[in-house]
Amino acid sequence: MSQPLSQQPFTPDAPATTPGGCGRPLLIGCGILIVLMGIGAAVFVIKAKDLFGWAMARFEEEVVRMLPDDLTSEEARRLDAAFDAALEAWDASEADPVALQRLQEELWQTVSRSDGKLTREQVGNLTRALERVAGIESPDEPVSPEESPPEENEEPVAVPVEAA
Questions:
Q1: Partner of 103 for a Cys bridge, out of 8, 40, 129, 145, CB 3.0 to 4.6 A?
Q2: Is pLDDT at 35 greater than 90 in this prediction?
Q3: Is residue 52 part of a domain?
Q4: Structural domain contains residue 20
């Protein structure tokens, strides 16, 4: 009646295929990348103080370039001393982390100015931020009423605690 088909629609014994893609080279490359990133992170941690000192020196150069013409020599000396004191505090691991963050914001605002010159007020703000990092009390920084000690004849005032 009917003859069997000579060709079958599929081959029961399909040839073995080799795995495609780039699995092994990808894994090796990612492994090497992770090792290199780990080495870079270790070097960064070890050299963090040197890196901070280098960055502060670059910032100081940029700030000196942007100093206003009407800045007094006393203000310039105080700024230079504040940069040095902040670096010394960083090297001695005595820098205040909160003050460092404020300094970072102040430096970014100072260096990113587009007109190229600072005002005396901005130089004063930067100097005070640097002095705070070093733990130096600024002679011209206003003391808030909460921080000022009571005078001799004045009784301390109890501050009410707000209910949560």
A1: 129
A2: yes
A3: yes
A4: no
Mean pLDDT over 76-80 rounds to 90
Counted domains in the chain: 1
Summarised one tens digit per residue, pLDDT across range 119-151 is 888 888 888 888 888 888 766 655 444 444 445
Residues with Cβ within 8 Å of 87's Cβ and at least 6 positions away in sequence, in order, are: 52, 53, 56
Q: What's the whole-model pTM score?
A: 0.57
Q: How many Å apart are CA 36 and CA 19, to the nearest integer? A: 29
Let me know if residue 105 belongs to a domain. Answer: yes
Q: Which residues of 120-154 are buried (b: 16+ CB within 10 A; e: fewer)?
A: eebbbbbbbbbbbbbebebeeeeeeeeeeeeeeee
Question: What whole-number distance in Å separates Cα of residue 104 and Cα of residue 32?
Answer: 34
CA distance 69 to 120: 9
Two tokens, residue 138: 């600024």
Instruction: Find the domain containing 122 and state its range.
Output: 48-134
Average pLDDT over residues 43-72: 85
Residue 147 tokens, joined: 């921080």
Helices (H), the chain: 23-46, 48-65, 73-91, 97-111, 120-134
Q: Is 157 helix (H, G, I), strand (E, B) or coil?
A: coil
- CA–CA separation, 62 vs 116, rounded Å? 10
